[in-house]
Amino acid sequence: RFFPSMKEDIFEFCISNAECMTLGVRKQSNGMGGYILNSRWQKNFWLLA
User: Fold this and answer.
1) What DSSP assignment string belongs to 30-48?
2) How far is it, in rounded angstroms, from Cα 3 to Cα 19?
3) Rama region for 15: left / alpha / beta (φ>0; ψ in -120 to 50; rest)
4) Distance CA 48, CA 25 (A)
5) What CA–CA distance (Å, rounded) separates 18 from 40?
6) Which PANTHER family does the annotation name (predicted)?
7) Burial class (CB within 10 angstroms; exposed 0-12, middle 13-18, buried 19+) of 28
8) What Rg, from alpha-carbon coordinates, does the chain have?
9) Dist CA 26 CA 36 (whole Å)
10) Domain spans, the chain
11) pLDDT tens-place string over residues 3-43
């Protein structure tokens, strides 16, 4: 489990340094808290905001 500031730093690093990686983040459902980070390389990925 990451501390809040460390978790934010990891996400910022991934977003800033990934050229074509998709990232998925979801909360753990087992009651322990924390997040699960999934990554996958994609050739054509659109970020919709």
Assistant:
1) SSS--EEEEEEE-SS----
2) 26
3) alpha
4) 15
5) 11
6) ADENINE NUCLEOTIDE ALPHA HYDROLASES-LIKE SUPERFAMILY PROTEIN
7) exposed
8) 12
9) 5
10) 4-41
11) 456 666 777 777 777 666 677 777 777 766 777 777 766 55
Q: How far apart are CA 8 and CA 31, in angstroms?
A: 21
pTM: 0.32
Provide CB contacts within 8 A for 23, sequence distance 6+: 11, 14, 15, 37, 38, 39
DSSP characters for 13-30? HHHHH-SSEEEEEEE-SS
Q: Give the chain's end-to-end CA distance (angstroms, integer).
A: 28
Q: Which tokens hold the place of 26?
A: 């979801």
In the block, residue with structure tokens 């996958």? 40
